[in-house]
Write a structure and sequence with these properties.
Helix content: under 10%
Strand content: over 45%
Largest sheet: 12 strands, mixed
Distance between the termini: 14 Å
Shape: globular
Number of strands: 12
Radius of gyration: 17 Å
Strand order of the largest sheet: 7-8-9-10-11-1-2-3-4-5-6-12
Length: 208
């Protein structure tokens, strides 16, 4: 259940609308690699794909414990659904997200340096967090809204190469594809095959 919480809350807890960004509709694909803590070698884990029409966002990812997971959220409304299959049944776990008033736990230091990632000239930034052993160099694109992925609260653009510390090691996310295209509205709907259920009710049901 920790994995559901990480996927649906930790990754999408940062919603900021104070800056003006270039509107975007299309698809973003990130690769995920696990950095071995001793050898520092990267091992490919999976891909995560994000679809957005600049208002609605659908994120598709996969993990070993729960398989494929999909998250559908509205950037301006405090509601989202986590779609997953558990023991042969499909659930749409509804979550209402309260206003985020907690200060960011990340600190950012701007520095010189650019790198081409996912077709963009991305800016380098040094990121520090209590979970990181040392500050890490990451990259972002300033003109694109960071809320499509909602990670690194307080960053002033879309992260295109970033890290998350987990119990299994450091995960490296790298943007591989950025496609501007029309996304059908049906992609953001919850189909009837999914049972809509609250997060607490879902936890109670599976614990039985």
């Amino acid at each position: 259940m920790k994995l559901i919480l990480l996927f649906s809350v930790f990754l999408y807890s940062s919603l900021v609308f104070s800056q003006n960004y270039k509107p975007f509709e299309g698809e973003l694909t990130y690769s995920i690699e696990l950095i071995h803590p001793e050898t520092n070698k990267a091992k490919f884990i999976s891909f995560t794909t994000i679809f957005t029409n600049d208002t609605l966002v659908r994120t598709e990812s996969e993990n070993i414990a729960l398989g494929k997971q999909t998250l559908i959220r509205h950037l301006q409304l405090s509601k989202q659904y986590v779609l997953l299959e558990y023991q042969g049944k499909k659930y749409a776990i509804q979550q209402n997200i309260g206003k985020d008033t907690i200060p960011s736990s990340y600190t950012f230091t701007e520095c010189r340096g650019v790198k081409k990632i996912g077709g963009f000239k991305a800016k380098k930034i040094i990121v520090n967090h209590s979970n990181f052993k040392t500050p890490l160099a990451m990259y972002y694109v300033k003109e694109i809204n960071p809320n499509y992925i909602g990670i690194l609260k307080g960053i002033s653009g879309l992260p295109v190469k970033y890290y998350i510390q987990t119990e299994n090691g450091l995960l490296c996310y790298t943007l591989r594809e950025f496609k501007e295209k029309k996304i059908p509205s049906s992609l953001f709907l919850v189909s009837k095959e999914y049972e809509k259920i609250s997060f607490l009710d879902f936890i109670e049901r599976v614990s039985k």
